[in-house]
Amino acid sequence: MTYRRLFSLRQAVPQNAVPQSEPLPGQSLNNAGGHWYEVGDWGQLDRFLLLGSEGGTYYVGERALTRDNAMAVQRCLIEDGQRVVARTVEISQAGRAPRNDPALFVLAMAAAAEDEATRRAALSAIPLVARTGTHILAFADMIEGFRGWGRGLRRGVARWFTAQDPNRLALQAVKYMNRGGWALRDLLRLAHPLTDEAATRVLFDWIAHPNQADAVGAARAAFPLVDGLYRIREASGPTEAAAIIRNRRLPREAVPTELLTAPEVWESLLADMPLGALIRNLGKLSQVGLLNVGSEAAATIVRRLADGEALSRARIHPVQVLLALKTYAQGHGERGKLNWTPVPAVVDALDGAFDRAFAAIEPTGKRLLVGVDVSGSMHGTRCAGSPTLSAIEAAASMAMAFVRTERQVEVVAFDTELHSAPLTPRQRLDDVVRLFGQWQGGTDIALPISYALERKLEVDAIVVITDNETWAGRQHPIQALKRYRETVNPAAKAVVLAATANAGSVVPDDDPLSLGCAGFDAAVPQVVTGFLKG
């Protein structure tokens, strides 16, 4: 952007504008020294469920952000605890969040609420939110910080065991017998679940007494998966282990560590590997030599990543795909202990899977201006609990979702200046991230709106992807938006997609033409489409 353009934008600010360092009526101080509208406790609940607090933000540490969100959750529980439980189940069941831990945390808080109806609702919802063995073990660890193991909690955990199909429960026990200091045996002994299902009783006996010969023998006879767990421990080598994996359909977690360096073992695992595990293990598949250019494994993976319905059924979140894409394409793991040569076809398949993970995105048919916050705080904030995935990378992915879907869309980047960002549908995500990476100034969220105003751009909506920590502008974004509506398009809508689980937004809740929501929610494209077409 030229100096003349920047000067023109700054001169466009009216004399009665209020700088972002000073509040408008109804605003409060944000974490960067500017001002915003508080989203309210229910809005913050949604942000926490969808974005979590792992890694904190550029301005707020992880512990403080978790505390702030927990206080908002507590206020929501006091106001309407059953609504909190229903919202938690809704978001968790739909796979809208990159991680399920925030939902488990909120459910644990609800299970310890003072209101009895809220506690009952939360305990009944345990199987709906804690769907896997690792989920229920994480829930047990969390809830100990809120309450004791009374009768209601024991019954709720017992329902988790009895609600499982016997074969599914066997899989959970084989994969997640121990996690984070807890074991399924611990929960079984606390909950004392009762069932009339003979196969399930055999499984309960084995989980509770894994060293008793009679219990082990009965479980091995009833469940091929359990039998395979013991057989592979006695395998003479990788070839025999691979055969056991195929015959017993063992998951990776059941395979002894020393066998996980053999290509034939991974080839057998690949046949039945769930999509989530497949995406997480692409680097390892390449490192052991199974995944190469032109290999059968590469063709299998490309085919599976192209199945949009399978991605949806597996609850694969777009941010999970983005993280896998970044990690796999760079050729080494986050801690640098594993190295591999990326297969270009797999990188391309991940890029395509990112779009498919949003399910069927319906174009709005509207004229859109998308502004991406490229300020330093966006680069310094981690996303979805990953130590390497930044908010700016996730924001780039959201911008590309619009570019690949809409026919009338312009993208600009902003910090304390406006930057041209002419993205195209065929552009790769890593190229977009590199483009956005060259800017890391302060934050003035009013700039995209001022740009549209100065150029008199006829747009139906202005979409901003940001952490909302604006502070550097000479006018507030809502003031610029009001002037745009008065001057250019009185029906113009504004959408603000939040990059972090903080408490504020630059648009007020009472503006019917504005929408603020969590940016990395898998349902965002559908929510935004409905809002813009409504």
**Mean of all residue-level pLDDT scores:** 85
Q: In terms of structural class, how would the helical and strand content be classed? A: alpha/beta
The share of residues in helices is 40-55%
CATH topology of the domain at 3-41 and 361-533: Rossmann fold
Intertermini distance: 35 Å
- SS elements, strand count: 11
* Corresponding CATH superfamily of the domain at 3-41 and 361-533: von Willebrand factor, type A domain
Put simply, the count of helices is: 27
State the low-pLDDT regions, or none: 1-11, 54-62
> In CATH terms, what is the architecture of the domain at 3-41 and 361-533?
3-Layer(aba) Sandwich
Explained architecture:
The protein is an alpha/beta fold. Among the domains are: 3-41 and 361-533, von Willebrand factor, type A domain (Rossmann fold, 3-Layer(aba) Sandwich), CATH 3.40.50.410; 275-316 and 318-356. Helix content is 53%, strand content 8%. The chain is built from 27 helices and 11 strands. It has helices spanning 3-11, 40-51, 62-93, 101-111, 116-124, 126-129, 133-143, 151-162, 166-175, 184-191, 198-208, 213-222, 224-233, 238-248, 263-272, 275-280, 282-287, 296-305, 308-313, 318-330, 344-356, 376-380, 391-405, 429-436, 447-454, 477-487, 524-533; strands at 28-29, 35-38, 178-179, 182-183, 368-373, 409-414, 418-420, 461-466, 493-498, 504-505, 514-518. The strands form 3 sheets. It has a 6-stranded mixed sheet with strand order 7-6-5-8-9-11. A 3-stranded antiparallel sheet has the order 1-2-10, with no helix packed on it. Strands 3-4 form a two-stranded antiparallel sheet. Helix 4 (101-111) packs antiparallel against helix 5 and helix 25 packs parallel to helix 26 (477-487). It is globular, with a radius of gyration of 25 Å. The chain starts with a helix and ends with a helix. The relative contact order is 0.12.
